[in-house]
Amino acid sequence: MTIKPKNPTVAKIRRGIVALVALLVVVSVLLHRPEYTAVDEGGGPAEVPVTVAPEEESVGEGSLDWEYPPGWVDYSDLPAVEELGDEDQPGLTNWRYILVNGLDQSNYLRETYYPDMEEIEGGYYFQRRAAEDLRAFLAAARAEGYIVSISRTYMSYADQRVRFNGMASTIYDRGELTLAEAEVQVKEQGYYPGADEHQTGLAVNFVGEGGEAKFSTPVLEWMREHCWEYGFILRYPEGKEEVTGREAEAGHVRYGGQLAAEYIMRKGITLEEFRGAYEEDEEVVWEW
Questions:
Q1: What is the pLDDT of residues 144-163, one digit of tens each?
Q2: The whole model's pTM is what?
């Protein structure tokens, strides 16, 4: 009998097929093998605790979830004040005299309040009815040779909420107060959402050359001296912190119309005091 020599290529293919089949058998055994059963002292199966991996929690954007502290009023439920009246509306109902501060919840703006605004410069917006006066004020300061820039105008309710959360979180991270106590501290500083008059679109912050905003800065001194000519007042003067509920700010001015602005600046009072005097006697308030 004659034996033919094996074809090396065919033999190689056969060995590959055998190896592949063997691998599949091993994988099948591993996948279907029974779980190990523990045996107790009596020879029966012992109970083996089953560990279930916890589901991963989804992490949303933002650092703190917004919640009003227990017992506090949700000031966003206050009536909207978008309709502030026209040019002829009398007394304190006039849109120029709207009061916003953190001293009383009736002075808080709600979340849905959006004033009618237009751009002044550099992406900064101001209430449309007072925009031309702000442009004239800036132009006058620059005509005197001063370098002055806007650092803040409109600030939305949502942005105030982000700021509030950030400030409270920073205080809380010091480890001295609870989060609720930190939130109360920020609220007492006048930074509660809805309590910032920047939301009215009538407030603007100025800085001088190099971003300075000090009471001794020449440009801000000039602007405080002449702001009433364009209908603006220094909103947070020194020595009036208890009246306004805010610390003094050198570069923060507020539009109130020329008549009220001249009275406020000549008397050295605040918007709060002006409104109080107006409520007592509408005739006397205009005498100086």
A1: 999 999 999 999 999 999 99
A2: 0.67
